[in-house]
Design a protein that fits this description.
alpha+beta; two-stranded antiparallel sheet; 6 helices
């Protein structure tokens, strides 16, 4: 279901997220689809449509996140909150592998989010590979 965002709120999101997915960092041009607006705390769980609860996300991160707000850390087996772009700093929880193709979780939040959002799915990894050939390097933070 489409949500209404005022022009000012949309521009604020564009400014902070810079036409990139706030989760995986994929630029809109790289994803092949327009960014979608994600509610960090889903509306189905009482999340409001306010700046602090919104971010831009690529179609796949948004699809895989769904209404999740937590997931299992594969290392500890404990349930942990998902990464929140408005609360957390990307580089505290994630890094790129040497080839800049895969996102690695550094913390329980990072590991759980990488798995839950399937941030290294074959579609996005192939897109990263193609864009790297064209000179793209990931930058997030």
């Amino acid at each position: 279901m489409a949500i209404y965002l005022s022009k000012a709120l949309r521009q604020r999101l564009v400014t902070i997220d810079d036409h990139r997915c706030a989760y995986c960092g994929t630029p809109q041009a790289n994803s092949g689809n327009p960014m979608v607006v994600d509610h960090l705390q889903p509306r189905s769980k009482g999340g409001a449509t306010i700046f602090e609860n919104l971010c831009f996300a690529c179609y796949l991160c948004n699809l895989f996140k769904g209404s999740q707000i937590q997931a299992v850390d594969p290392l500890s087996g404990e349930i942990t909150p998902l990464f929140s772009p408005r609360r957390d700093r990307w580089s505290d929880h994630f890094t790129w592998n040497e080839a800049s193709l895969h996102i690695l979780g550094l913390t329980s939040i990072g590991r759980a989010t990488v798995i839950a959002l399937r941030m290294n799915n074959t579609v996005i990894v192939d897109a990263r590979r193609n864009w790297i050939r064209l000179g793209w390097r990931p930058t997030i933070d």
